[in-house]
Write a structure and sequence with these properties.
Spore Coat Polysaccharide Biosynthesis Protein SpsA, Chain A; 9-stranded mixed sheet; 7 helices; elongated
Length: 446
C-alpha cells in the first residue's frame, strides 16, 4: 500500500508540473514572437547640447555668442544672433537650425556678419550674426558652423531662439524696462541703488534688467529681494571667465579685450530681450535716473512726446551731474537709519552742474525697442524711425557722482530739488526694502 501511495503522489506532481509548463508556454509565446512596434515618425536628433549660459564660446573660433532672437525686420533674414567677434579672426560661418527636433536641409545658409561700427579699438566687437530660416522649418534652436558640413554638428552647442510668437508666451506687455548694462568690481553702493530703483518704481518703471559680473555682499542681498518680487531681472554676466574685460572705454588707454566689461553687447542684448515684452526701454547706468520734470510719471511724458513726434523711436535725454561732494546744508534728509548703509544718499545732493557745451556732452535714451536695430552707449547706431532730443524742462538725467567740472564753485551750481517731490513715498519704500534685505533692524536702525 505504501508503494502504491508513493506512485500516485509522484504521478500527481508530474501532472501538475506538466500543466504549469503548458500554461507557461501558451501565455509567453505570443509575447516572445510578436513584432516590435515601429516609432511614430522620425526620432528627434537635435538639439544635442543646449547652452544654459549667457556667454557661449563658438566652437573652432575665438568668437562668443550670447543670444539668438527672431527678427523679421531686415529683409532676407529671420534670426539675429548677438555675440562678440574677434576682429582679427574672421572666417565664413554657416547657420544650422533645429526644426522641431530635426536638422535643417542639407544646404546650410551662409551667415551675414554685421559688426557694430563702434569698438573703441578693442579686439572684440559687438556683432550681429544674421541667419535665414529654411522653408518648412519650425526653428526652435540655432547654431553656427565654420564648415558647410552637417557632419560636424554633434559637438555643437545650440542656442534657443527667443521672441518666438506662440500662444503660450503672450505675457502682458510692460510699459517701461530699464536696462542696466553692467555691475562689476564688487560694486556695493547699496543706498543709492535702493533709492534709484524705488524712484524708478514711483515714476512707472515695471522692470529693471541688470547684467551682473560682480557686486558686494550687501548689494547682493538687496538684489535677491528685488529679484524675488520680480522687479529686477538678474542676468549673470561672467565675461571675465572668457576675456580680459577693460574697465575703461578706450583700448589705447586701458587695454583689455572688450570695452567696459562688454557694456555695448549687454545693452543690445537687453533691447532684444525686451523687444516683445516692453513698450519702452530706458538705456542708462545704475547711478542715473531719467527724471520727468513737467510730469510725475514717465508714461505721461511719453504720451505727450509721442503725440508731438509720432514717427520717433529714440528720445535722447541729456545727462546732468549732481556732484556728491556738495551737500544740502540743512541736513533735512541726513536720516539716522541710513548712517550704517553703504553708498550715497541722493536726497542730500541738490546742486547741479551746467554741462560744458563747448565739449561733447553725452545723452542716455528712452527707445521704442522695435524701432532700434543696433545701439551704442550714448546714441543708437541703426534705427527705423527718427530721433528727438528731449527739452531739459521736460526730462533730464539726475546723475549723482563725482563732479565733472571740478573747478566750479558751489555758487556756480544750480539748486535742483526735484527728487524731494517724491521723498514722502520714497523714504519709507527704501526703508522697507533695506529692512527686508536685513540691512536695517526692526526699529529702522542699521
Amino acid at each position: 500500500m505504501d508503494k502504491t501511495k508513493e506512485l500516485k503522489r509522484k504521478l500527481f506532481f508530474l501532472f501538475v508540473a506538466t500543466f504549469v509548463f503548458l500554461l507557461f508556454i501558451t501565455v509567453r509565446t505570443p509575447r516572445i514572437y510578436r513584432s516590435t512596434p515601429k516609432p511614430c515618425g522620425p526620432a528627434k536628433i537635435c538639439p544635442f547640447y543646449i547652452s544654459e549660459e549667457t556667454i557661449t564660446p563658438l566652437n573652432n573660433t575665438k568668437h562668443l555668442l550670447v543670444s539668438a532672437f527672431m527678427d523679421h525686420r531686415v529683409n532676407g533674414f529671420d534670426i539675429r544672433i548677438i555675440g562678440l567677434l574677434r576682429t582679427d579672426s574672421i572666417q565664413p560661418l554657416y547657420c544650422l537650425f533645429c526644426c522641431d527636433g530635426h536638422l535643417s536641409t542639407p544646404t546650410l545658409t551662409p551667415t551675414k556678419i554685421l559688426q557694430h561700427p563702434e569698438s573703441f579699438g578693442f579686439p572684440f566687437v559687438t556683432t550681429d550674426f544674421m541667419c535665414q530660416i529654411p522653408q518648412n522649418c519650425n526653428a526652435t534652436h540655432v547654431t553656427l558652423l565654420t564648415e558647410p558640413d552637417r557632419q560636424t554638428v554633434f559637438n555643437q552647442i545650440w542656442l534657443p531662439i527667443r521672441n518666438k510668437k506662440t500662444e503660450g508666451n503672450r505675457e502682458k506687455k510692460l510699459n517701461f524696462t530699464v536696462c542696466i548694462s553692467n555691475l562689476f568690481g564688487d560694486y556695493n553702493n547699496v543706498l543709492q541703488f535702493a533709492q534709484t530703483l524705488e524712484m524708478y518704481r514711483l515714476i512707472g518703471v515695471d522692470r529693471v534688467v541688470i547684467y551682473n559680473t560682480s557686486c558686494g555682499p550687501e548689494l547682493n542681498r538687496l538684489l535677491q529681494i528685488y529679484s524675488q518680487e520680480g522687479f529686477v531681472e538678474m542676468v549673470p554676466w561672467p565675461i571675465h571667465k572668457h576675456l580680459n574685460p577693460s574697465r575703461g572705454w578706450l583700448f589705447s588707454e586701458s587695454g583689455g579685450d572688450v570695452h567696459y566689461f562688454g557694456q555695448m553687447i549687454t545693452l543690445n542684448e537687453c533691447i532684444y530681450r525686451s523687444m516683445d515684452r516692453s513698450r519702452y526701454v530706458l538705456l542708462n547706468d545704475i547711478d542715473e535716473i531719467i527724471m520727468p520734470y513737467q510730469h510725475n510719471n514717465l508714461m505721461s511724458v511719453m504720451n505727450m512726446l509721442q503725440q508731438q513726434h509720432p514717427n520717433t523711436g529714440v528720445f535722447l535725454i541729456e545727462n546732468h551731474i549732481f556732484p556728491k561732494i556738495h551737500f544740502e546744508p540743512s541736513g533735512r534728509f541726513h536720516l539716522p537709519q541710513w548712517n550704517g548703509v553703504s553708498g550715497v544718499n541722493i536726497l542730500e545732493h541738490i546742486y547741479r552742474e551746467d554741462p560744458d557745451r563747448s565739449k561733447y556732452h553725452p545723452h542716455k535714451m528712452i527707445i521704442q525697442p522695435r524701432m532700434v536695430e543696433q545701439t551704442s552707449v550714448h546714441e543708437v547706431l541703426k534705427n527705423f524711425g527718427q530721433q528727438y532730443k528731449v527739452p531739459l524742462d521736460v526730462c533730464r538725467i539726475i546723475h549723482v557722482r563725482v563732479p565733472q567740472r571740478g573747478g566750479l564753485k558751489l555758487e556756480q551750481l544750480n539748486v535742483d530739488k526735484r527728487l524731494w517731490d517724491f521723498s514722502e513715498k520714497l523714504i519709507p519704500n527704501v526703508d522697507k526694502q533695506l529692512k527686508r534685505a536685513g540691512l536695517l533692524n526692526s526699529e529702522g536702525q542699521s
